[in-house]
Amino acid sequence: MSETATGGASGRDARIRLSDVAARAGVSNSTASLVLNGSGPASASTRQRVLDAAAELGYAGPDPRARGLRQGRSGIVAVVTEDALGDAFRDPINLAQLDGLADGLGDGGPSLLIIPGAADDPARVSSSPFDAAVLVGCGVGILDTLELLRRRRVPVIGLEAPHADGVAAIDLDNVEGARALAEHLRELGHHRVGIVTLPLGSRRTSGPLTPELEAAATAPSTSERLDGVRQVFPDAPGWIASASSIAAGYEAGAALLDGRGAEGVTDADGATLADDATGADGAKAASTRPTAILAQSDLIAIGVIRAAEERGLRVPDDLSVTGFDGIRVDGLTDHDLTTMVQPARAKGEAAGRAVLAALADPEAPAPDPVLFRTTLHRGATTARAGA
Amino acid sequence: MSETATGGASGRDARIRLSDVAARAGVSNSTASLVLNGSGPASASTRQRVLDAAAELGYAGPDPRARGLRQGRSGIVAVVTEDALGDAFRDPINLAQLDGLADGLGDGGPSLLIIPGAADDPARVSSSPFDAAVLVGCGVGILDTLELLRRRRVPVIGLEAPHADGVAAIDLDNVEGARALAEHLRELGHHRVGIVTLPLGSRRTSGPLTPELEAAATAPSTSERLDGVRQVFPDAPGWIASASSIAAGYEAGAALLDGRGAEGVTDADGATLADDATGADGAKAASTRPTAILAQSDLIAIGVIRAAEERGLRVPDDLSVTGFDGIRVDGLTDHDLTTMVQPARAKGEAAGRAVLAALADPEAPAPDPVLFRTTLHRGATTARAGA
DNA sequence: CTGTTAGCGCGTTCAT
DNA sequence: ATGAACGCGCTAACAG
């Protein structure tokens, strides 16, 4: 395979160019280009000579850089994340979305360029060539980056990203999903519930959820899910998870179960955990421990369950726990988690299709938001209160 | 922010180019280029005028495509995987490697272009611009792709990939690690052991491990780990996992524990499970069930444990189980797995450094392979046989 | 210090 | 059916 001196002007190390092939085949560059791209009309003999020449020289095809410049297109779609690479992919829900995205882009379609940490360093986004960008799981920290993308005239698709001018939005009805889940708990008779939220913004800190922090949440999915819960449990105390992970859920769950969530919701009086209607004072009776915890992701929920079990609490007998996402728990837990299942893969596919559409007609205005819905999965981690 | 008619020749939709900025600042293209790239010498007043012009026009910086062509460099490093995207990143060990790779490339460094499924479609690799490629977890199915990369004169770094001419290899001492683990089991008195292998090649099928299949294994880590085991248990029966996942491990574990591994290792006689020295016939006594299972990844091991527990077997009392990788079990299991810990992150970083080195001096020959070592973690999933 | 010139490698007109 | 010429947007040489 490695015949070195076959070619005509076989320079020691240079890459074979189209012009080399053309020269060897005795045709012009343009003819060779037409033949190799399959499109152009050419006599059978010419075609064959070009193909032979290419094979003999080991032509690797056109240089993607040059082709990209010429065609104004690089065949690359950027996946922009606020988080670091590891954090972004650790949650199966994001992987599922990426899988869907790859699918939606199709087989011969563009490849994915991963641009993590865009919030910290917006400039990363202007140094690489790509034809479209997909924002996944971003908060408003991404807005600077967005401005750059707009200047580059790059179509932008937002997967649960902040709505902004010209961004094709793929959304999830987080509000309704979270509300339904909270409703489910209330129907089961729970009044003292705790919340474990997703990270509020790009600041990955954990701690008690204060009204101020809650109001300042920047990530759409975080604040939407919180809004949904608030429609049912306006005063429930909460804890902010530092990430959507089991470990973070464990920490947060431990905090809530040990009563540390208290400071978050009350000002100065002794009331610690809210109930939904009677006011925070009525339930000051036997226990201040929540009877249910709404975790804003499945991974977090698993961590919460672990924290509960470690404290000798049985789920769901002593504590009901709900998740969010409906990830296929590849053996992550023995529990059949009550959760809202979201069509992550379909969301990714929709994003892929949106990319292709934007590429096909760059002049077209951003399409209307696409809204995906969640479905309640009644698992075995929720039960009637005080059972 | 969106003053539209400020610029001179503000064409309706065109992207602002360097020449627009230069014209507005009243300087030549090259001067503007020098100023914007920070490098060139320029008078303070000129510099300021150029910067002002760029700001006023909303110049987004040089077009990465054009810059890439001109400089012969795109600022992109490809991560090439044999598997589909989801399969490749589901295993935390690969994520850790990616994390390390991103680190090793440094902050202002190249971005990562994900190219999954390269074995199925080698051409994917020739359509996108990148300056170097990292092969992660590939078998020989990648060789066609490799040939293309060679033709493109792209430096290639192999992370546990097949050794080949010009590929900078980052290796792991899988053989020694697997041997040590097997040795550990033998020292504990285990004779009847079963093996659950990683997938043998790009064919993601599961089933009993036959000598023919074993000999035909194409993925380096798979066959090396198998080789290591064979130095201690030459005849142990095995089952091929369809992936490095808990689910696949569960299936394989179930198969071995139910005695289905049998056909794999024997020809026609009744002997089912091998012991290491006395030959397959001696142990036909009470039970043919293995007393220990060597799983070739931690995820697989967790699946095996689950299968065992479901059958009423206690780990490690009734069955010892070992893993491989030493992933941080973010709450994946309650067990403290006995396993070989590999420095996945460091491997990724080494790959990153190798990329930078290759980029710094493209003429340099491929460096010698870098070998990383595993360390035995004696967890709580192995115990003395027959205890 | 600044402007002029010349490509990077390719695809695509427009002639022939 | 084929070849010649041009330019995508930028930067690296050289002149001035």
Output the keywords.
homodimer; 387 residues; alpha/beta; Rossmann fold; 3 domains; six-stranded parallel β-sheet; disordered N terminus; DNA-binding
Description:
- The structure is a homodimer of 387-residue chains.
- In chain A, 38% of the residues lie in helices and 13% in strands.
- Chain A is α/β, with parallel strands linked by helices and 387 residues long.
- In chain A, the strands form 3 sheets. The first copy, chain A, has a 6-stranded parallel sheet, sandwiched between helices.
- In chain A, strand 3, helix 8 (143-151) and strand 4 form a beta-alpha-beta unit.
- In chain A, helix 9 packs parallel to helix 11.
- Chains A and B meet through helix 4, helix 5, helix 6, strand 2 and helix 7 of A and helix 4, helix 5, helix 6, strand 2 and helix 7 of B.
- Strand 2 of chain A pairs antiparallel with strand 2 of chain B.
